[in-house]
Amino acid sequence: xxxxxxxxxxxxxxxxxxxxxxxxxxxxxxxxxxxxxxxxxxxxxxxxxxxxxxxxxxxxxxxxxxxxxxxxxxxxxxxxxxxxxxxxxxxxxxxxxxxxxxxxxxxxxxxxxxxxxxxxxxxxxxxxxxxxxxxxxxxxxxxxxxxxxxxxxxxxxxxxxxxxxxxxxxxxxxxxxxxxxxxxxxxxxxxxxxxxxxxxxxxxxxxxxxxxxxxxxxxxxxxxxxxxxxxxxxxxxxxxxxxxxxxxxxxxxxxxxxxxxxxxxxxxxxxxxxxxxxxxxxxxxxxxxxxxxxxxxxxxxxxxxxxxxxxxxxxxxxxxxxxxxxxxxxxxxxxxxxxxxxxxxxxxxxxxxxxxxxxxxxxxxxxxxxxxxxxxxxxxxxx
Length: 383
Prior knowledge:
Blueprint: H1 10-28, H2 45-74, H3 79-112, H4 120-123, H5 148-159, H6 161-168, H7 173-183, H8 191-202, H9 219-234, H10 236-244, H11 246-261, H12 274-297, H13 303-330, H14 337-359, H15 363-368, H16 375-382
Helix pairs in contact: 1-2, 1-12, 1-13, 2-9, 2-12, 3-5, 3-13, 8-9, 8-12, 10-12, 11-12, 13-14
């Protein structure tokens, strides 16, 4: 029999919501980054610095928080029910996004980059030609563009399932206790950052596993990070250690990145890996600081949190298509970049929330956006 649900962790809900908001703000300014994007404006060094800083911790922290949710889900669900819930929560929205939300994003990129000049519906048949991001000139975004996070989260959840289940079993509890005892020692939690640096340094960036197209990090990094996130929430002592060291983690993260920007690197056998090693370690320290601060200070619920917790996945799915649509027109205005950014933020937020209010009212849309069906809808399905 399945166990009762554990008490809800409002700190995890808060962290998830705040991190998704940070992703929204990041993408709202992405047109002004020096790197290429689907819709581009002139580059701003200020925006490039801020967005580069956000890339250090934003998506990595989301993967850790997602792993925490998996730990609690497997605590009361059988493996089969858990897998089915992930199919509904991750795969269904991913497929919906690949066929409905992604085409217009690819079209805008082709249009703004001078690769196509006609209207969207004239271009749409070309969407199924080649794989976007894999083949040169490919258009079909099988990963749903920004929904690659859902793809990797589902894939890693399935690959790590045997280990996840082991940690919940009697046989796995001594392993968790042993790892918890080691990581409880002051400073040992930072050694995990050294492990995270290995795939970033030694995996070829031209390979599928080594590509850093996933918000600046490769797939192996996220895979290991998910395991670490699961381990952290498998042992209360590790969480308490992170909470106790929260300010030290923050200061260490800042110190590492300041030294990096100053050209002062941690010495390694291969001088070339020094900056990347330091960057990855700083990222891990920022993640620990976010977890520690969140677990310490974000334990209360509110009406806003209850609303935002349900909205977080649809908000994430809708945010980039809406931002791109608005940014396409805003970047053409002859006004300061900061004003453009604020216009994109305000109009995009209004558009996303307007669409979300429609999604949450319609059962079939709730299904495609990974939301739970309301009771009346569930009864109708059963009948």
